[in-house]
Amino acid sequence: MTNEAVKEAGISIPGEKTPFKSKDQWKLGTKGKELLRVDSLKMYYPIKGGFLGRTVNHVKAVDDISFTIYEGETVSIVGESGCGKSTTGRAIMRLEEPTAGRVWFEGTDLLKLTKKQMLRKRRELQMIFQDPYASLNPRKTAAQTLEEALKIQQIVPADKRRERAIELLEMVGLAAYQADRFPHEFSGGQRQRIGIARALSVNPKLVICDEAVSALDVSIQAQVLNLLKKLQKELKLTYLFISHDLGVVRHISNRIIVMYLGKIVEIADKASLFNDAQHPYTQALLSAIPSLNPANKKERTILKGDIPSPIDPPGGCRFHTRCPFARDRCKTDTPELRKVKDRSFHLAACHFMEEIEAARSR
Ligand code: SF4
Hints:
Layout: H1 3-8, E1 34-49, E2 54-70, E3 74-78, H2 85-93, E4 100-105, E5 108-109, H3 115-121, E6 125-128, H4 132-135, H5 142-153, H6 161-171, H7 188-200, E7 206-210, H8 218-235, E8 238-243, H9 246-250, E9 255-260, E10 263-269, H10 270-276, H11 280-287, H12 328-332, E11 338-339, E12 347-348, H13 353-360
Parallel strand pairs: 3-8, 3-9, 6-7, 7-8
Antiparallel strand pairs: 1-2, 1-4, 4-5, 9-10, 10-12, 11-12
Helix pairs in contact: 5-6, 6-7, 7-8
């Protein structure tokens, strides 16, 4: 695919050395102002073995992915467990150091920052985790947790921290009288609200939500998703939403990235993806979403076998061992992401997507 087509599709140009020629250039993205650009990101974990404990192989958790997030939008990454979606979030935050690639945030390459500079930068990028209970100190009250975050980033004077902590709790739908309660005195949904308040305490621009509602009951999930949407509007936030559940992603995303075994296989606007998914893997994920309307019931595509090991991923198209449409070419040629028909913001990585689409509509 040409660089022009990639640019038009609203994703990064892999390998582009200097995407921002001037300070203002990052404001001129196809879909508005670019906030984050991930370029050719790789995260390989070495496997040690043998007599001398040398590196004998690598787990290729994320293998050369590129995408862009524009200010104010919600981009979701979906895929099965082990596809590399959470690793991508952690690599952007530099909670783990990527093996290769670049992560541009408002024109700054985060991977070039020193540890100290990155700590300061984390004010602008925050993360919400799946299990808020594990990330909350059981010996600290809700207010103390938030006051501590404010103290670390030194953005509120000491005598104003409690006041701000209560403001934050109210912002996420908790009450002032709950400020002195400990984590075990809150429900799962309320604990996640404290996690959200803590992330927002430092006024971030980008919030990475890593399976942020996966541990919650369906009704509570809806409440937390609605809260995230409300806060996005009020605070002009941008989200990277990571989830294994396309049903959840549907409620919050503007654009969706589908990952399989460390690679992006499809990227599209929400409507385009849900109405006209092109990659057989995305189609299988969509077929698994239960529909409440019997008229909309689709036949479920059951994928054969398990997701292969990222230590030794299949050659060619990584999905070929499970794809119902695989042919010989799929075993040897790696499909590139390419534009779907006349869709500006829809790319998929399948050699035969046009033929599969034609067969589907017959
Ligand atoms: S390239 Fe081949 S194996 Fe991969 S998704 Fe397309 S048809 Fe299936």
